[in-house]
Write a structure and sequence with these properties.
alpha+beta; nine-stranded antiparallel sheet
């Protein structure tokens, strides 16, 4: 079976990854990404492209473009997700700042988690938080992480689950510059843990 063509700009991302000595796959292993799904607050892409992976200590980071349309059509918008494998993530919670083109609106395969307030007024005003309880959300998104995200002007989706985090930073596009920025943001968030 032929693989679908790579999206526009893929060659620039591949070049950027090579120049930095990072692992690049234009057509990454779909099963690896599907193991992270279903997402709690985001829709899933029909496929994934332009995967760039690197490790920082015991943390493994993969940046990739979810194709948010049928493979033979163009999406309404394009973005990049960060998949972070780290044993420090032990709970399950999700949060969303703003409404975005990839926000999940239907919950057929699993129930929507309850919406909770953490009790942190700036966070609760800006973010819709989903968890089994307010205390679980507070532990999944500790104060340092909430402050780091606020300092970054975070808008998008962040999902914590045992062993990892998925991050969608709104406005991030599949360009080398945005991959670079997203790769730099991850350590700042992790230091807040």
């Amino acid at each position: 079976m032929d693989q679908p063509r790579l999206p526009e700009g893929s060659e620039r991302i591949a070049h950027w990854a090579r120049m930095r000595g990072l692992a690049y796959q234009g057509h990454p292993n779909e099963e690896w990404f599907r193991a992270w799904e279903p997402f709690d607050t985001m829709t899933s892409g029909s496929s994934y492209f332009n995967s760039v992976s690197f490790a920082q200590g015991k943390t493994h980071v993969t940046l990739a473009e979810p194709w948010m349309a049928l493979e033979d059509s163009e999406p309404l918008d394009r973005t990049v997700l960060a998949f972070v494998s780290d044993e420090r993530f032990r709970l399950r919670a999700a949060a969303r700042g703003g409404e975005h083109f990839n926000t999940r609106v239907s919950f057929l395969e699993n129930a929507k988690m309850p919406t909770v307030s953490i009790g942190d007024a700036p966070w609760d005003k800006h973010m819709a938080t989903f968890a089994a309880s307010p205390s679980e959300a507070d532990r999944a998104f500790p104060l340092g992480m909430r402050q780091a995200l606020a300092h970054l002007g975070f808008s998008g989706h962040i999902e914590i689950r045992p062993g990892g985090m998925v991050l969608h930073f709104a406005g991030t596009k599949p360009t080398p510059e945005h991959y670079e920025n997203l790769a730099a943001v991850i350590p700042r968030i992790l230091r807040s843990l």
